[in-house]
Sequence to fold (189 residues):
Amino acid sequence: MKQIEYFYNIIYYFFYRGAIKISYGLDFILYPYRKLIFLIIDIPVIRKQYTKRGIINPRKTIEERRKKTTESPILSRGTIIGAGLAQFTFVLFYIGIYHIFKYSFFPTFQDSFGYVLTVTFILAFTTDVILCQKDDKGERYIKEFNKRKGWWRTKWKIITIVSLFLSLWFSLTTSSGGNVGQFLISLHF
Fold:
């Protein structure tokens, strides 16, 4: 169980890092608007309002707030998007397992895909809570993985991306249109 928790948190960490990079990329695109905000802040009347509130340097405060909402390991854009992508990887994996179970034992059973998605999303969220959110494991792993550099990061970045594509491939090949799904269906006829 400890190995599965470690692997899941590595996947979560690299999706978290990717979300941070994308968020900063979007900030670069929106830079002209931020520059406009900084020009508005420099107007003496508005600057006076900030100093009344006790904010001496509003630019620094805005930058600190942006960094906190983007990079903080406790509920930031990076953690929300990272957790969503890690859960989506497990959703695809659980859909593949469902297809194997369904076509092995009940090949003629017709179901609504909405129910399948609902159940697999609940399973993926439960998996995330057990492996990452319980006892703040995700935050501890983020702090631990931030210290690691070099080949370890490169290797696990590749494994994270490959795991996403492998879970997608697994889900598609076990569906009724995939090779594995058609093979399992043909065993019953």
Summary: The first helix runs from residue 2 to 29.
